[in-house]
Amino acid sequence: MQKASRQQRLERIWSTVADIPAGKVASYGQVADIAGIPRGARHVGYALRHAPDDRKLPWHRVVQAGGGIAFERGSAPFKKQVARLKREGVSPVNGKVDMGRHRWAPDLDELLWKPSARWDEP
DNA sequence: CCATTGACCGGCT
DNA sequence: TAGCCGGCCAATG
Fold first, then answer.
1. Which is nearest to A88 in space by CA: A7, A33, A25?
2. How much is the pTM?
3. A10: part of which helix (H) or strand (E)?
4. For A4-14, what is each residue's pLDDT tens digit?
5. Using one digit for the tens of pLDDT, what is the confidence trace for A16-56?
6. Which nucleotide C1' is nearest A17 CA?
7. Burial bucket for residue A101 (CB in 10 Å: 0-12, 13-18, 19+)
8. Distance (Å, rounded) from C-alpha A99 to C-alpha A105?
9. In the structure, how many helices (H) and strands (E) does chain A have?
10. Is the CB of A29 under 7 A from strand B?
11. What's the N-to-C CA distance of chain A in angstroms?
12. Nearest protein residue to C10's C1' (by CA)?
């Protein structure tokens, strides 16, 4: 498979994030894997930072592997993310989401149905 | 071209 | 449990 271009990577990541359902969260690494970018956790952060506003992505559903909010505690974006999560019934405790309870676990059907399943094709 | 920088991760104190 | 550390790898300057 040809190495993904910069734009392809961004699209895959944005598309994957858009698939995370309300009430669930995914880690940066998880999003990277599903997006077909192994060990690309840091790139997910990059992609979200550079996402155009009009994509209206549920970026708040992306957290660290251990459930922590990536932003600095107390910062504006931190509070914003917590507020949005609460609105969806996730309610982080002490800046951390209970991953055992809220981790997004897409089933095979869901993965195959989504555009992300076609990334291997020409 | 080389160095630094991240909305990260996992292992190990 | 909380940090620290090395690894990670495309983007930036």
1. A25
2. 0.93
3. helix A6-19
4. 899 999 999 99
5. 999 999 999 999 999 999 999 999 999 999 999 999 999 99
6. B7
7. exposed
8. 11
9. 6, 2
10. yes
11. 8
12. A43
